[in-house]
Amino acid sequence: MFTHTQRLQFEAKPEKPDPPYAHKLQELVGGAYGEMSVMMQYLFQGWNARIKGKYKDLIMDIATEEIGHVEMLATMVARLLEGAPATATTKMATSDPAVGAVLGGMDPQQAIIAGGGALPADSNGYPWNGRYAVASGNLLADFYANVAAEAQSRLQTARLYNMTDDPGVKDMLRFNLARDTVHQNQWLAAIEQLREDGLEGVVVPGGLEEEEYREHAQTLWHLSDGTEAGAGLWATGPAPDGEHELTILNTPQPLGDIGMAPPPDPKLFATYDGSLGQPRGPVLGTETGVKGKIKDVLTPDE
Fold it and tell me: How far is CA 16 from the centre of its chain?
């Protein structure tokens, strides 16, 4: 279960209202790398975890913190919108209210839909999407995704930090920056812990090394006209997984046949000159009509 306290994790009081900045701050609420994304990402990772103890506890601690971050940002957005649109927007909309609202930089949906509050949307008004959340069940894959999510969040927070002079807003964002820093470090440490505990390696997923073509698991194919790709650690020397030796393939050649779609089914009306032969019939198990009925009789359900 979850419990809630009315006090915010950190203060969210702007010095003065600023509707255009509230519009920008929506990115940290409901953007692809906003707090709603990491909140839902971590919650589902925790709920779907198949391992008890420290890993699940870490995920759920940070996930629950992120719920508070959404509340903190939503509160800040509402306070930045105080008095809008009756003050800031109206002054610019005297001649043309529609144009004035756009020029004023305020998100009209914050007033029309949310009643002067935050929206579960990004800075363009696009609704938050559940596909932003990554929860695969593989903790190494998820922790890699978490590092990237916190990095993008901190990057956007840093940019927004430099888009305001409001001391109250900057104070809250200093806290957000710090929490993004510690979360990046914690997910990186969790990745190392997975390796130390012998649960995961470097590459996701482990256990298929004998199945893959090893000669293709260690080469950088030089396919662009840039000349310096071979100068990095990714091109020479031991791979981070300790299992491969990285090299560069300077003149890679195609290993497959000519890429061509098969003959089309005439009922699809694709333009076709017959040069590829006749299309195949229905794949076994997909027949319809008389053929399908005959197949059903000859292969009854077991």
Answer: 33
Report d(CA 142, CA 154) in Å as an integer: 18
Fill in the amino acid letter for 99.
V
Specify the higher pLDDT residue, 108 or 1. Answer: 1
Give the SS3 label for residue 201: coil
Question: Whole-angstrom Cα distance, residue 148 to residue 135?
Answer: 14
237-238 and 219-221 strand pairing: unpaired
Give me the amino acid identity at 88. Answer: A
Contact 30/119 with Cβ under 8 angstroms? yes
Please count the residues of the chain.
Answer: 302
pLDDT at 96: 58
**Cis amide prior to 205 (ω within 30 degrees):** yes
Any idea which residue has 């992120």 for tokens?
Answer: 66
Query: What mean pLDDT value characterizes the chain?
Result: 90
pLDDT tens figures, 120-159: 999 999 999 999 999 999 999 999 999 999 999 999 999 9
Q: What is the pLDDT of residues 231-254, one digit of tens each?
A: 999 999 999 999 999 999 999 999
The reported pLDDT for the residue numbered 112 is 83
- State how far the Cα of 183 lies from the Cα of 150, in Å rounded to an integer: 7
Which one, of 61, 100, 95, lies nearest residue 84 by Cα?
100
Q: Are 172 and 72 in contact (CB under 8 A)?
A: yes
Residue whose tokens read 């900045």: 21
- Does the pLDDT at position 98 exceed 60? no
Tokens 């008095």 sit on residue = 83
Identity at 69, one-letter amino acid code = H
Burial (0-12, 13-18, 19+ Cβ within 10 Å), 169: buried
Q: With the C-alpha atoms ordered 256, 260, 261, 266, is the resulting torsion angle positive or negative? A: negative
